[in-house]
Amino acid sequence: xxxxxxxxxxxxxxLDDSLNQINYELLIDTEHKPIESFIAxxxxxxxxxxxxxxxDVILCKDFKKRIEEVINNHPKDIINFxxxxxxxxxxxxxxxxxxxxxxxxxxxxxxxxxxxxxxLISTGKVKLPNEYDSIECEALKQLNIPHLTYxxxxxxxxxxxxxxxxxxxxxxxxxxxxxxxxxxxxxxSKECILRRKELVEYRxxxxxxx
Length: 210
Hints:
Layout: E1 4-9, E2 25-28, H1 34-45, E3 50-54, E4 57-59, H2 63-73, E5 79-80, E6 92-94, E7 102-105, H3 109-122, H4 132-142, E8 147-149, E9 155-157, H5 177-182, H6 190-194, H7 196-208
Parallel strand pairs: 1-2, 1-3, 5-8
Antiparallel strand pairs: 3-7, 4-9, 5-7, 6-8
């Protein structure tokens, strides 16, 4: 399967060097309209099997190989590779969509989601202003489309450089694959839960150094 990579941005943030691992197309919101631009971008990438990234992420090592292994095992599913950052859980299907730092959208699905988001907004079923991932979540529920929430996280949310708010550690994850690899922790093990404090400390130090 050919997979295309896209990065949502306003053009103000310098992308992390880890994104040099992939060839990507920038989708630039020059008007600072996050909801409108997101819907338009979903429709645009709908022509492809697409990974949509935000511009505030750090990619894990061997990102392309690792993410495409997962996608090839679930080619028909929407896959969210970063969600509920502080919670420990194993990969599972869900209707509760949070965050959009790194999401795989199978070909054709983006336009359906975008059209449903437009309908929800135009009919007043969702109220603006609202976060676009919240509107997307409601659209997926209306369309009865579950998505795969994948663990461990293949990207880290580089919240330290947020353009709209102060740093918030609750928006970053200790369960980033690079941290697990560096500390030699298997995610699907009791050890991962027992060593959570160590992972949190490693996360904090890692983000300070970037």
